[in-house]
């Protein structure tokens, strides 16, 4: 092995999952602090640009790694829209009620309060101050997919009045 070779080659770097989201947020340094304080994120890598914006960071949240950075419109990296998101980041935790409350206390906006879902999970959804939609959840019981399907169809039909 040469000095340029990695001792552990593979499809993903050692210690990371194979699907690693990269998100772009305004005020990325404050976002890192929020994710550390609310979700217990550990900063693995942080590269600040000359203007102080975070060019690239990697955060370990639970057993996963989330990459993030400041918007770079020239590269097509823009922050989330003012309303909504095309995705939700779900984080499985032991106590979703406490994490949700901590997020709201730190400036997150509740989207749906923590409650027991027909999927067998206890979950709540918030939008962090940096525009990302997060779900904090705990899996409490296994539910047959047929039961989940029927409940999901009934739930969506309620909105068709």
UniProtKB/TrEMBL annotation:
Residues covered by the VOC domain: 15-139
Pfam entry (one): Glyoxalase
Protein name stated in the entry: Glyoxalase
PANTHER family on file: BNAUNNG04460D PROTEIN-RELATED (PTHR34109), VOC DOMAIN-CONTAINING PROTEIN (PTHR34109:SF1)
InterPro entries: Glyas_Bleomycin-R_OHBP_Dase, Glyas_Fos-R_dOase_dom, VOC_core
Record-linked SUPFAM superfamilies: Glyoxalase/Bleomycin resistance protein/Dihydroxybiphenyl dioxygenase
């Amino acid at each position: 092995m040469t000095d340029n070779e990695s001792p552990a080659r593979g499809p993903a770097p050692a210690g990371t999952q194979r699907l690693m989201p990269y998100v772009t947020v305004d005020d990325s340094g404050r976002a890192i602090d929020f994710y550390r304080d609310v979700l217990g994120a550990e900063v693995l890598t942080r590269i600040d640009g000359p203007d102080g914006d975070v060019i690239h960071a990697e955060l370990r949240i639970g057993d996963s790694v989330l990459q993030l950075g400041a918007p770079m419109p020239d590269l097509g990296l823009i922050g989330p829209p003012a309303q909504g998101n095309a995705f939700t980041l779900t984080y499985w935790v032991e106590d979703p009620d406490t994490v949700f409350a901590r997020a709201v206390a730190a400036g997150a906006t509740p989207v749906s309060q923590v409650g027991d879902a027909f999927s067998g999970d206890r979950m709540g959804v918030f939008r962090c101050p940096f525009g990302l939609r997060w779900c904090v959840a705990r899996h409490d019981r296994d539910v047959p997919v047929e039961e989940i399907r029927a409940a999901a169809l009934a739930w969506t039909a309620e909105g068709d009045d």
